[in-house]
Design a protein that fits this description.
The chain is 63% helix and 0% strand. By secondary structure, it is mainly alpha-helical.
Length: 127
């Protein structure tokens, strides 16, 4: 979605929907057309999507911040990577959030070494 012009995001997103979400989208757009309302803005569309599906389309930043290491570092790193795919964070924030999610002792030990990138933080945590 980063390269899609803002005014095209609803249209491009609709091409990737299926099953229940596609049915909802078609009904939503038919309702807009019937009422002769303008094509929805991206923000309006997201709010309508959240109203309909709630937690299924949650806040990815909240999910990332709440992520905590409970098992090994590799498992946590994989879960962190998956959560990161839904965000576009400025450099440095990703490192801070990763370190905060590690077990306390490990996070503190890696933080002391001042990793400058997420990949370096991953490497130091695995060591």
């Amino acid at each position: 979605m980063d390269e899609v012009p803002h005014h095209e995001k609803v249209r491009v997103t609709s091409m990737h929907l299926d099953d229940l979400t596609l049915q909802w989208h078609e009904a939503y757009m038919r309702g807009k057309a019937y009422l002769k309302l303008p094509y929805p803005s991206w923000e309006e569309y997201i709010w309508a999507l959240l109203d309909r599906f709630g937690a299924e389309f949650d806040d990815p930043m909240s999910e990332l911040v709440k992520l905590k290491q409970t098992g090994g570092v590799v498992e946590f790193q994989e879960a962190f990577d998956i959560a990161m795919t839904r965000l576009n964070l400025e450099p440095g924030y990703d490192v801070s959030i990763f370190l905060e999610g590690l077990k306390l002792e490990l996070g503190d030990a890696v933080r002391i070494l001042k990793p400058y990138s997420l990949s370096q933080a991953y490497h130091l945590a695995r060591l």
